Amino acid sequence: MKFCITTPIYYINGEPHIGHAYTSIAADIMARFKRLDGFDVHLSTGTDEHGIKVARTAKKEHMDVEKFSDIVSQKFRDMSNEINMSYDDFVRTTEKRHILSAQAFWKMLKKDDVYKNVYSGWYSAQDEEYIAESDLDENRRAPSGATVEWMEEESYFFRLSAYQDKLLDWYEKNPDFIAPASRRNEIISFVKSGLRDLSISRSQFSWGIPVPVDQENENKNELKHVMYVWIDALTNYITSFGFPQDKAKVSEMMSNCTHIVGKEIIRFHAVYWPAFLMSAGIALPKRIYAHGWWTNDGMKMSKSLGNVVDPKDVIKRYGLDTLRYFLFREVKFGEDGDFSEKALQNRFAYDLANDLGNLIQRVLAFIQKRNGNFVADYNMSDEDRSLFENARSIIEKMRPAMDKQDLHSALNTVWDLVTEANKYVNDMKPWELAKTDVNRLNIVLTTLCEGIRSIAFGLAAFMPDTARKIFDFINVKGDRFSEISENFTDQHFPQPSVLFPKER
Ligand code: ME8
Q: Is there an atom of ligand 1 within 6 Å of 293 CB?
């Protein structure tokens, strides 16, 4: 079974920060979970490099825009590696394969849907978005707070107005297409309020993909257009699926594809993109999930305020898996969150070092005291069965939550098992059984090892390094959830190391 998942491709006008890392880690967790569950996964990410915003930033830095793109795009690739993102593809919109793909896509739009006219109106370069007069605030700024500039130029238009009913029909027939529900409602009322045709090319600057019909008319001395940066950017998803080569494969991948985006760009993904795809005759994605926004100590993160959280910094001080855990345990995925050092410290000390770290240490160090030899025994009593069964069914419990992108509930399920296992150690007192009843001791340790293995599988998508260490402590390969149902046999465990050392 195919499972495709994407992140937005990030603008390269600034450095990567915790917000970008958040989306990329979320998509990575979903991709890893599905791989462990036996799916054929394709995870794509990348950088959005064209448009007036990037061209102006490069100019401000006195750099050639191509060179500038290479440097900043590389920083996003570095970030993807630093957060241990298991991407299968990294698309740059300046790559030849993408330019060809975007041009082929343009040509597939229904002829009637594209026409030339003059655009006049407001444009926010910061958002790379056309802003309707009625959407300007009292200071005549875009809803995002960005300044707008008047634009008047010849432009190609996409007949978005013709897609209003088709889109509403699609949303109704596919109730899971947009999530969470609040975003779905927001999009439905936006579309119901009426759709205006969308300007899809720019003629006053050149940092973009040439509109193919214009390129073909080169000799005829026509005004040249480049594609509007959003039609260029959205096409990246099918570029990654091999468009325009094998169109059947692209449609198959699209219909198994989930786009993960921040809530501020849901309209582009849930309105414009499906309309473009309908026009081009390519399958729509399966689902679009919009998550919330992170602030820093209650303030919007911005370069000018100097309060942007750098993931590298957090990783250096607390470790990568602490960051990956914190982001999805602290805040329900889909809602806004506030980043605070104190909250991060608490999660590290209580959940990770104390609950999880101690459980692993106390059980596995105990087995070490017995020379690391572990004799499995499955003659369990009712009191052992409860933990054993919860351990064996952990993935079944996580699956429905993961399928709804409810990462928070899935992670809570793992923590319930951590709590249950800790309580079981306290109740069963293996250190006493060692003196009185070695048979019972073997059963208790077997039950605990089952618990630990399941916890590691539950965490494997969220905290891959930590899970790997735990798997190594208990001789488990850890590359498929199906391993959970294998019985432990008699074996020798290596010395476990401390998972979350207090001093870093
Ligand atoms: O919008 N909290 O790129 P972008 C949570 N190029 N997520 C955040 C965040 C925050 N504070 N800040 C950024 C673009 N993000 C376009 C996308 S896709 C075809 C083109 C994340 O660099 C979140 O996923 O502005 C958001 O949607 C994305 O970064 C915006 O990245």
A: yes
